[in-house]
Amino acid sequence: MAVPKKRTSRSKTKIRRSIWIDKANKTALKAFSLAKSVLTNRSKSFYYSIDRKLPNSSESTSIDEV
């Protein structure tokens, strides 16, 4: 016969939730740190190619010119 499970205590629920939130905060902090290092060209663990050519705004066509 099916028996209902016991309710999880409030403190255990809060502990599990805080662990989950701490993991998310740590991951977000790592991502932000990597983004800052890439923007300042100091990244040692992330390799990317740099395309130095920027599009010239005078060469682009707009709807008004056509």
Automatic annotation (TrEMBL):
It holds the Pfam family Ribosomal_L32p. One of its GO terms (cellular component) is large ribosomal subunit. One of its GO terms (biological process) is translation. Keywords: Chloroplast, Plastid, Ribonucleoprotein, Ribosomal protein. One of its GO terms (molecular function) is structural constituent of ribosome. The keyword Transmembrane helix does not apply. Its main location: plastid. It is found in: Plastid, Chloroplast. PANTHER family: 50S RIBOSOMAL PROTEIN L32, CHLOROPLASTIC (PTHR36083), LARGE RIBOSOMAL SUBUNIT PROTEIN BL32C (PTHR36083:SF1). Belongs to the bacterial ribosomal protein bL32 family. This is Large ribosomal subunit protein bL32c.
